[in-house]
Design goal:
mainly alpha
């Protein structure tokens, strides 16, 4: 199960690299290029985070349930954040990077705030699990025999 989750995290990291390339094209094609650039950069950073987490996945000292929570929080947060960026660019929703101090209004603003809330909660829980999982030794580490 650990290896399957690890490979899925790596695969989704590469999916985000691919999505970031498409958002790079959106900067040139669609109106509000600054908002599309925010989505492009966020997708690139999300790819790096997912690839990093996938690389460290075997080293986490977590139970199967904790791993499942961390895994799904990471993926839900990543894709929800991606959709929130697309939504923000498509409907010209003010954001902290593109329109500091301006709050979103209307139904599209409410949808964006809901997506933003989901991103914050899932990523805080997910990253909290990852930090917690990096404590001490993993079960496999304590059983390894080191040849001298």
């Amino acid at each position: 199960m650990i290896e399957q989750q690890r490979r899925r995290l790596l695969r989704h990291g590469f999916v985000f690299l691919f999505l970031a390339l498409w958002l790079g094209l959106a900067i040139m094609v669609f109106p509000r290029p600054m908002k599309w650039m925010v989505g492009h950069l966020t997708a690139l950073l999300t790819a790096v985070i997912l690839l990093s987490v996938g690389h460290a996945w075997r080293d986490l000292a977590l139970t199967a349930r904790q791993r499942t929570i961390a895994f799904w929080c990471g993926l839900v947060g990543a894709y929800d954040g991606f959709i929130a960026n697309i939504w923000s660019a498509a409907f010209n929703i003010p954001g902290p990077a593109t329109s500091p101090g301006e709050l979103p209004t209307g139904l599209s603003g409410a949808v964006f705030l809901l997506m933003f809330l989901i991103v914050v909660v899932t990523l805080m829980v997910g990253f909290g699990m990852l930090v917690y999982g990096m404590r001490g030794e993993t079960v496999s580490d304590s059983k390894r025999v080191v040849a001298v």
